[in-house]
């Protein structure tokens, strides 16, 4: 019984320290201060169709970009960064059929990638250098496709040294912040 009185406080202290350490690591896993952060940007609250054909069927929903059929359509997503640095763009997407080529443009510099596959997969568009703090406009435009749509893009992922815990965008739809 005497050993139990000694062990119980010791175990309680270990559990308390483990709980504190787990919470600390959980917060830092979202934005590591010594490394570049990778953030998920929901498209429902951060994107606009800035160029659309009159007959275009493209839409933005809480699930992302849908019915992307027109080569003329341009989807624009806005992120506010608080410091200059590198800026990488990735997208979680799928294509119901065929293959597509998609152009991503930031600050008049474009990257073109080929995508395919019916299951959700992250594709990297590349990196850009952001020279000053402020809004970054990410434009996406379909260049060619062999299927009926360019892609179903679910969300964008951003990373780089310009990204930190002060990066501003609509993080979720709590409070009905998505406007669609």
What does this protein structure show overall?
The chain has about 180 residues and is an alpha+beta fold. The chain is built from one helix and eleven strands. It has a five-stranded antiparallel beta sheet with strand order 2-5-10-7-8, with no helix packed on it. Strands 1-11-6-9 form a four-stranded antiparallel beta sheet, with no helix packed on it. Strand 7 and strand 8 form a beta hairpin. The radius of gyration is 21 Å and the shape is globular.
Keywords:
single chain, 46% strand, disordered N terminus, alpha+beta, 180 residues, 16% helix
Count of extended strands: 11
| Rg, Å, rounded | 21 Å
Mean pLDDT equals 82
Largest sheet, strands/sense/barrel: 5 strands, antiparallel
Please tell me what the overall shape is.
Answer: globular
Terminal CA distance reads 64 Å
Instruction: Please report the number of helical segments.
Output: 1
- Low-confidence spans: 1-35
What series of H and E elements makes up the topology? Answer: HEEEEEEEEEEE
Strand pairing plus helix content: what structural class?
Answer: alpha+beta
Estimate what percentage of residues fall within beta strands: over 45%
The helix content, as a percent range, equals: 10-25%
Strand order of the largest sheet: 2-5-10-7-8
């Amino acid at each position: 019984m005497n050993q139990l009185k000694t062990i119980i406080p010791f175990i309680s202290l270990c559990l308390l320290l483990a709980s504190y350490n787990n919470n600390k690591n959980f917060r830092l896993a979202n934005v590591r201060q010594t490394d570049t952060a990778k953030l998920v940007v929901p498209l429902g609250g951060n994107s606009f169709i800035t160029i659309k054909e009159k007959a275009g069927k493209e839409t933005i929903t809480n699930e992302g970009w849908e019915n992307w059929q027109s080569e003329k359509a341009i989807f624009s997503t806005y992120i506010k960064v608080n410091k200059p640095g590198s800026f990488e763009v990735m997208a979680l997407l799928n294509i119901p059929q065929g293959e597509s080529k998609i152009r991503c443009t930031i600050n008049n510099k474009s990257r073109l990638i080929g995508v395919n596959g019916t299951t959700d997969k992250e594709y990297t568009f590349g990196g850009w250098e952001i020279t000053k703090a402020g809004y970054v406009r990410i434009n996406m435009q379909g260049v060619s496709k062999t299927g009926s749509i360019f892609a179903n893009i679910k969300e964008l992922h951003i990373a780089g040294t310009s990204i930190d815990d002060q990066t501003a965008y609509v993080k979720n739809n709590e409070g009905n912040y998505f406007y669609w």
